[in-house]
Amino acid sequence: MKALLPVVFGTAALLSGAAFAESTNTITFKGEITEQTCSVTVNGSDAHPVVLLPTISKSELKDAASSAGLTTFTMGVSGCSVDSSTLEIKTLFIGTNVTSSGNLATSGSATNVELQLLTDASGSTIIDLSNPMAVAGISIPAGEQSGEHDYAVRYFSPTGNATAGDVVAAVQYAISYL
């Protein structure tokens, strides 16, 4: 009986650990059902859009927390049915490789540089990709079928001393009608 007791307690400990581990392996799926959907474009392109930032000198990113090359891009929707009130459409940006500061990490050869997404063409408000949330932007008045909003992107060097090279990053987006 004494030899059986450690086996029982050992088995119970293993099973409780397995149950605990299983509960942390949860995948949450989220979706949205709306009265309508619209066709989406980025800078007029509905498939594989590319936003080209200007070529800048590395000296523009020599200081810590410096930014340069503000570039706007337009998210547009069309084919919407807006009946009685204005339709406010939000955009959720999800970075494929996000830095601890909430910017897009780059996969190009330039170093000490990230890309920041901004809520509008003025570049005044940064979109924190480390905490994804839907960003307001596109507003379609009642009776209209399309709308657009300008967002922006820019080079950002958190530490300064950016090196020369190419800069490449990607972000996915989802449109929310709720």
Automatic annotation (TrEMBL):
Keywords: Signal. Residues 1-21 form the signal peptide. GO terms for cellular component: pilus. One of its GO terms (biological process) is cell adhesion involved in single-species biofilm formation. PANTHER family: FIMBRIAE MAJOR SUBUNIT (PTHR33420:SF10), FIMBRIAL SUBUNIT ELFA-RELATED (PTHR33420). This is Fimbrial protein.
